[in-house]
């Protein structure tokens, strides 16, 4: 029995790959693990059956055998630890790759989410225009530091790892803002991630769900 | 040689335990691992020597033998995986405990940080009073869900784990706001964490650094 993940029945982004199941799909594709998808509507996400799986009423979740977990970072780490392909064998290199996973999710993503919230949830507020540049600058602080660390390297710590998978996924949310283009090495880094065959398969799979159900725009 | 961590020479909170080295100290105390601390000034944090260790110019870092990592979540996970006491032996229970670590850092902490930013960084802005309740409600959404999941349990998944260590640490930042008191089981949960001897030792150790260098208020 392959693992089962959950994904939006209709992703809020209409299939641009920003829903977090894409991260999990990508990890599964990198390790060559086939999987099944259970689609969940916005209504069903807040109902007891799904809340039992995911206490915050979100996607994705991951079920395999007797294991049921949620939280994208945890799922990707579980996939990376239980299959070869996303973490180096050397123990120290492995700990560093996991460090980049946490850095993506807990240092780089929070200001990006705050920026996304400012655009999505506070767009109609009287302070929106004045506040947005402040929030954008908090994102730039992080991008500048990340760009310096990446330098001319292809990946954050030697070879591609779950850390890069997560960092690229987090940065992808900035694409529509154009902010990524201010950092040439970061936009090339993200493009390298998107060019991976496993990413493409993951992207196409989530897109198929959405184009099958939403009219093309 | 015991591991070496870094901490603020002077913590911005003056020793209230909110600086993230407290999380790492707590983890080290739970597994009974002694450690050394290198204090870093705000200036030194942004200098090349420290930026080489921590690309985002923050604390804590963790060095042991040939390994140097940053990012609190990664450090706590590394401690939990390399010593007994913070993760269950059963593989599925282990994955669930790690899930709670990520949930603390990537689902519960971001709105709490946004709330903290609203109070600290945007306190003087014209929108501050109007915006703060909106941001507080985003925190409440998460706390309500977390409170439902915790229910009458002592810990999030059976016995105390690195997941609880991280969740309690994340929730502690809300204490001054009084928001935690709206959720009786969550404030009791945080109090249970604070009552652990390992937490107390960690708290006292970070406090000693700060009271030794800052005048008492």
Flag low-confidence runs of chain A: none
Number of strands of chain A: 4
Give the strand order of the largest sheet of chain A, numbering strands 1, 2, ... along the chain: 2-1-3-4
Question: Span between N and C termini of chain A?
Answer: 36 Å
Q: Kindly state the mean pLDDT of chain A as a whole number?
A: 95
According to CATH, the fold-level topology of the largest domain in chain A is Glutathione S-transferase Yfyf (Class Pi), Chain A, domain 2
Q: What sequence of helices (H) and strands (E) makes up the elements of chain A?
A: EHEHHEEHHHHHH
Overview of the structural elements:
The structure is a homodimer of 217-residue chains. Chain A has 217 residues and is an alpha+beta fold. The first copy, chain A, folds into two domains: 4-85 and 198-211, Glutaredoxin (3-Layer(aba) Sandwich), CATH 3.40.30.10; 91-196, Up-down Bundle (Glutathione S-transferase Yfyf (Class Pi), Chain A, domain 2), CATH 1.20.1050. Helices cover 56% and strands 8% of the residues of chain A. Chain A is built from nine helices and four strands; from the N terminus they run E-H-E-H-H-E-E-H-H-H-H-H-H. Chain A has helices spanning 21-30, 42-45, 48-53, 72-82, 91-120, 128-150, 162-172, 184-194, 197-211; strands at 4-8, 36-40, 61-64, 67-70. Chain A has a four-stranded mixed sheet. In chain A, helix 5 runs antiparallel to helix 6 and helix 5 runs parallel beside helix 7 (162-172). Chain A is globular and about 50 Å long. The first copy, chain A, starts with a strand and ends in a 6-residue tail after the last helix. In chain A, 43% of the residues are buried. Chains A and B meet through strand 4, helix 4, helix 5 and helix 6 of A and strand 4, helix 4, helix 5 and helix 6 of B.
